[in-house]
C-alpha cells in the first residue's frame, strides 16, 4: 500500500473525552454489539436450519443479517475497546481497512434491501410468475452481483482516501475512519475528492432510497386487489421492510449527501446507522414475522429435546 504522507498513524478522539461517559459508552455499546451479534446469528442459524424458511425472502434476509453482523463489527469493537483505552491509536493501514469494511458491508446492506423489495414486488404484483422469476439460481446471481457492486464501491472509496496526503495533525474527530473526517486532515484542496465522494456514496444512498420508496408505494397500492388475509400478511412484511429502510437510509443520507461540513451530531448519527440499525433489524424482522418466530421455536425445541435425550 503506497503511502504519500508523513503521518503513519491516527488518534481517534471517539465520542467523548469524559472518563465517566467513556465507561457508560463501554457498557452501552458492548450490550448493543452483543445483542446485534446474537440476534443476527440467531436469524442466520434459523434460516439455515429451517425447511420452512426456504423462500427467496428468507434467502435475502439471511444475507441482510450477515451484512448487519459484519457492518456492526467494522466499527463497534473498535469503539468498545477505545472507550477504555488511554491512547486510541489506529495505524494508517488499519484506518484504510476500516474505510473499506465500512463501505463494503454498508453498500451490501443497501443492495440486499433493494433485492428484498424486488422480491416483495414480484411476490405481490406478479404472484403467478413468482417461482419462475425469483428462482434459486436467479437469487444467487443477484446476491453475487450485490457482492461485486459492494466491492467496486468500497474500492472506489479507499482509492479516494489513498489520494489524501497527511502531514499532520493526526487527530480524527470521530470514533471510526471514514472519508469525511479524513478529508479534514488532508494537506490539499479536497473539494474535488469530496465531490467524487458525495457523488459515489450520496448518489447510492439517495437513489436507492427513492427506488425503495417507489417500489413499496407500488406494492401497497396493488394490495387493494388482494383478500383481507393476504393484504394483512403482505402489509406486515412490507411494514417491517419500510421501517428498516427508513432507519438505515435516513441517517445515511444525512451523512453522505451534503457539502463538506461537519455538525456536532454527526458522530451520533453515524452510531445510529452503523451500530443501532444492525441491532434493531433482528428485532423488527422477528417480532413482526410469525414464520421466523415459529421456526425459532421449533429449532430451540429440537435443540432442547436432543440435549435432554443425552
TrEMBL record:
Protein location: Cell membrane; Membrane
Domain of life: Eukaryota
GO cellular component entries: plasma membrane
Listed SUPFAM superfamilies: Family A G protein-coupled receptor-like
Alphabetically ordered keywords of this record: Cell membrane, G-protein coupled receptor, Membrane, Olfaction, Receptor, Sensory transduction, Transducer, Transmembrane, Transmembrane helix
Location of the G-protein coupled receptors family 1 profile domain: 39-285
Chief site of localization: membrane
Recorded topology in the membrane: Multi-pass membrane protein
Name this polypeptide is given: Olfactory receptor
Source organism per UniProt: Ursus maritimus (Polar bear)
Amino acid at each position: 500500500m503506497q503511502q504519500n504522507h508523513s503521518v503513519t498513524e491516527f488518534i481517534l478522539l471517539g465520542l467523548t473525552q469524559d472518563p465517566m461517559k467513556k465507561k457508560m459508552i463501554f457498557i452501552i455499546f458492548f450490550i448493543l454489539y452483543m445483542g446485534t451479534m446474537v440476534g443476527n446469528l440467531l436469524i442466520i442459524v434459523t434460516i439455515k436450519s429451517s425447511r420452512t424458511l426456504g423462500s427467496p425472502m428468507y434467502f435475502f434476509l439471511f444475507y441482510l443479517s450477515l451484512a448487519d453482523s459484519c457492518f456492526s463489527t467494522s466499527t463497534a469493537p473498535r469503539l468498545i475497546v477505545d472507550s477504555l483505552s488511554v491512547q486510541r491509536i489506529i495505524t494508517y493501514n488499519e484506518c484504510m481497512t476500516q474505510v473499506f469494511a465500512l463501505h463494503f458491508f454498508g453498500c451490501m446492506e443497501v443492495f440486499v434491501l433493494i433485492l428484498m423489495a424486488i422480491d416483495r414486488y414480484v411476490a405481490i404484483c406478479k404472484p403467478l410468475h413468482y417461482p419462475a422469476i425469483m428462482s434459486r439460481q436467479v437469487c444467487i446471481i443477484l446476491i453475487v452481483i450485490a457482492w461485486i457492486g459492494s466491492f467496486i464501491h468500497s474500492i472506489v472509496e479507499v482509492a479516494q482516501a489513498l489520494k489524501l496526503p497527511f502531514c499532520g495533525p493526526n487527530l480524527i474527530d470521530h470514533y471510526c475512519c471514514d472519508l469525511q473526517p479524513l478529508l479534514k486532515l488532508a494537506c490539499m484542496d479536497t473539494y474535488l475528492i469530496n465531490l467524487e465522494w458525495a457523488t459515489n456514496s450520496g448518489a447510492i444512498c439517495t437513489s436507492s432510497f427513492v427506488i425503495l420508496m417507489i417500489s413499496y408505494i407500488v406494492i401497497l397500492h396493488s394490495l387493494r386487489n388482494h383478500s383481507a388475509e393476504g393484504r394483512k400478511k403482505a402489509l406486515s412484511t412490507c411494514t417491517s421492510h419500510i421501517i428498516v429502510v427508513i432507519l438505515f437510509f435516513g441517517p445515511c443520507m444525512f451523512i453522505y449527501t451534503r457539502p463538506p461540513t461537519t455538525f456536532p451530531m454527526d458522530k451520533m448519527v453515524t452510531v445510529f446507522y452503523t451500530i443501532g440499525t444492525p441491532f434493531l433489524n433482528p428485532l423488527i424482522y422477528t417480532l413482526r414475522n410469525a414464520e421466523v418466530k415459529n421456526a425459532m421455536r421449533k429449532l430451540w425445541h429440537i435443540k432442547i429435546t436432543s440435549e435432554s435425550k443425552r
